[in-house]
Amino acid sequence: MTNTVYPVILCGGSGTRLWPLSRKSYPKQFVQLVGETSLLQNCAERMLGPSQAPYAKPLILTNEAFRFIVPEQLTAVGIDPGPILIEPEGRNTAPAVLSAALFLAARDPEGIMLVAPSDHVVPDMEAFHQAVAEGVRTISERRDLVTFGITPTHAETGYGYLKLRHPPESTHEVVPLDRFVEKPDLKTAEAMLSDGSYLWNSGIFLFAVRDIIAAFEQHASELIPPVQKAVAEAKTDLGFLRLDPAAWAGVGDISIDYAVMEKASNLSVVPYSAGWSDVGSWTAVQELSNPDEDGVATNGEVTAIDCRNVLIRSESPALEVVAMGLENVITIAMPDAVLVASMDKAQDVKQAVTALKAKGVKQAESLPVDHRPWGWFESLVIGDRFQVKRIHVHPGASLSLQSHHHRSEHWIVVEGTAKVTIDDQERLVTENQSVYIPLGATHRMENPGKVPMVLIEVQTGTYLGEDDIIRYEDIYARD
Known about the structure:
Number of strands: 28
Distance between the termini: 47 Å
Number of domains: 3
Oligomer: single chain
Low-confidence stretches: none
CATH class of the largest domain: Alpha Beta
Structural class: alpha/beta
Number of helices: 11
C-alpha cells in the first residue's frame, strides 16, 4: 500500500527584501514576480503532485492577515485547498511543522508530509516530482527524515549549506547528511563549491508524520505540550482552523533546522539540480526574468536605453519608467514608492524598510491597495477632509453592515451592480448610478451579480481613518 503524501505549505513570511513590491500587508508569496501566477499559486500547483500519485489536498499554515487571501488565490487557479491552519502569531517553522504533523497524526499517522515554503520558484515540475518520489522511497526503506539540497551554481553567501557524507554520483541519488552549515563568507563558499559535497539548503522537507513527531519528542520535547494543546483546542472559523492563541503564546520561536534537523542522525538529502530559487533578492528576480544579452530585465511600462545589467519594473500601467545609461541598477516603481539601488546592495533592501519604519512611513509595510475578504480597495486621492477610493467587490461578496462617526460617503457604481442597504432601505444601484450615505447611517454594500462590481467612493468628514468603522454584522466574522 502506498502512503499518501500530504503537501504542507508554509505561508506566513513578510518578504521585506523585495520591497516595495513585497510588503508586510501583501508579501512576495502573493505577488506575480515571475510569470502569470503568484509564488503561492505556483507552489500549490507543484505540490499537488503527479496525477497518478496519492497526493492529498495541500494543508496550509498562515496567519490572520492572510487567511482570506490564501483561499482566494488558490481558487483563482482551480485548486481546492485542504485545511488552512491559522497561527495566532509567527513562531517560526518548527512550531508550524509540528502543528501540521499533530493535526495529520489524528487522521493518518502513516502519511508522509512534504513541507515547503510558499515563496520559492521551482520551474521544472516533473523533475521536482521525481525528486520527491526518490525521497518517498527512502522513507519507506529506512524511515529517514529527508531534505532537498540544491546543486550550487556559484559561490553563494546568502544560503545555508548541507554537507553530504560524499558527493552524489548521479541525479537524485539520496545521500546521507553529514551536517548543516551556516551561511558562509565568500572564501568559504568558493571552497565548498569546489569540494562538490556541499549543496544549498532549500528548506524543503519530506518525512513520515510519525517520524517527525518522534524527532520532536527526542530533540525538542518542550515544544510538544503547548503545540499539542494549541491544535487540540483549535476552533473552526469559517472553514479555517484557528490554533488556540493562549496555548500558542507559550510556544518558542525556533526554526525546524535548529530545533530538530541539526540534531537528528537519520537525515538524508535528495540532490536537486533542475532549477530553484528562494527569490530572496531583486538580483534573483532579475535572473528569473529572462534578461536580454545586455542583462536588461524589465516588467511593465518600461523603456530602457543603453543600459547594462539592470532590473527595471513599473508596477502601474499608468507609470512609464524611462532608464538611460544605467548599469548594475535596480529600479522598482510603485504608485506610492520607488526603489533605486545598486545591484550590490540587493541583499540590504530590508535596511531601507527598517529606516522607513523608524520614520513612521506607511509605505514601509502597507501597499496602496488594501486586500479584504470581499475584494480590495485603493486610495486614489486624499485631502484634509476628503478621500476618493476605488472599491472592487468579488461576485457574491458583501461588506459588513456598518456605520461611521466622522464621515459621510458617496458611492458611484462604474462596473456591475451593487445591492445597497441604508438604514431600513434596500435598493439596487447599477452602472452610472450613485447613492449617498449620511454620517451615522447604518449601511452595507453587496455584489449580487456574477461579475466583479467596482465603485468609486468619495468620503467627506473630519476623520477618514479605517478604524472609524462600527460593525453590526459581518459574514467574515471580523471584529
